[in-house]
Amino acid sequence: MDTINREGVPVEKQSSPQRLAFAVTEAARISGLSKSWLYVEMASGRLPFRKAGTRRLILASDLESYLRSLPSEAA
After folding, report:
1. How far is CA 23 from the centre of its chain?
2. Up-side HSE of residue 30: CA atoms within 13 Å toward CB?
3. CA torsion 24→29→26→19, rounded to 10°?
4. Of 47, 52, 56, 68, whose CB has the highest number of CB atoms within 10 Å?
């Protein structure tokens, strides 16, 4: 259902902007992997990251690419 503004005109709901990057804790929560695993993968170079001061940021696109590169279990 649309929201109605003060003039009585329906206003479409705006979708939330997609996140571009995640802190390691957020990436772990989203991916289901542990923070320790992510740190090991970053240290090995298999999971790219960026630094912002002391924070490590994982781009959403890098996290998705990394997850897609993991082997899938055959059924």
Report:
1. 9
2. 15
3. 130
4. 47
Tokens of 68: 């897609």
Backbone angles phi, psi at 2, to 5 degrees: -75, 155
Q: pLDDT digits over 50-71, tens only? A: 999 999 999 999 999 999 999 9
Class of the domain covering 19-67: mainly alpha
Q: What ranges do the domains of the chain cover?
A: 19-67
CA angle 50, 61, 20 (to 5 degrees): 65
Burial classification of residue 3, based on how many CB atoms lie within 10 Å of its CB (0-12 exposed, 13-18 middle, 19 or more buried): exposed
pTM for this predicted structure: 0.74
Question: From CA 49, how far away is CA 51, in angstroms rounded?
Answer: 7
